[in-house]
Amino acid sequence: MIPLQPDLFTAADNPNVDPWLSSRIRQAIAQLCREGQPFTSDEVFERFGIEQPETRAEKNHVGSLIAHAARVGQIREVGRRRSTRAAANGRKVIVWVGAKA
């Protein structure tokens, strides 16, 4: 039987995604955690000069890396706010903070 939701660790380590993108996002999350300030996925890209992913696999990969960081206790959800990206059409995104903040 195929699970309804794949394991987030597996998704976060998708070998079909550019390893540079994966590494940069992981580094950005770690830095944002050290700073202790709330952040969204928008800040991961804006502050660290990472271009928005183009393929659906890469877009899903970004979410899986953030979800994985939450699952392992690196970050925790503290709220929601509207995305600052024009392409997001004002949709709400999760606000995160480093778990030790």
How would you characterize this protein structure?
With 101 residues, the protein is of the alpha+beta class. It has one domain (12-98): Arc Repressor Mutant, subunit A, CATH 1.10.10. Helices cover 46% and strands 15% of the residues. The protein contains four helices and two strands. The chain has a two-stranded antiparallel ribbon. The chain starts with 7 loop residues before the first helix and ends with a strand. 20% of the residues are buried.
Largest β-sheet summary:
2 strands, antiparallel
Q: What does the radius of gyration come to?
A: 13 Å
Total domains, how many?
1
Topology order in helix (H) and strand (E) letters: HHHHEE
Q: What is the number of beta strands?
A: 2
Overall residue-averaged pLDDT value: 82
**What's the overall geometry?**
globular
The structural class is: alpha+beta
Q: Which CATH top level class fits?
A: Mainly Alpha
How much β-strand is present in the residues? 5-15%
* Euclidean distance between termini CA atoms: 40 Å
Any low-confidence stretches, pLDDT <50, length ≥5?
A: 1-5
Q: The CATH topology is what?
A: Arc Repressor Mutant, subunit A
Output the strand order for the largest sheet.
Answer: 1-2
Under the CATH scheme, which architecture would be assigned? Orthogonal Bundle
Salient structural properties:
globular; 2 strands; single chain; 101 residues; two-stranded antiparallel sheet; 4 helices; alpha+beta; Arc Repressor Mutant, subunit A
Brief synopsis:
With 101 residues, this protein is an alpha+beta fold. 46% of the residues lie in helices and 15% in strands. The longest helix has 17 residues, at 19-35.
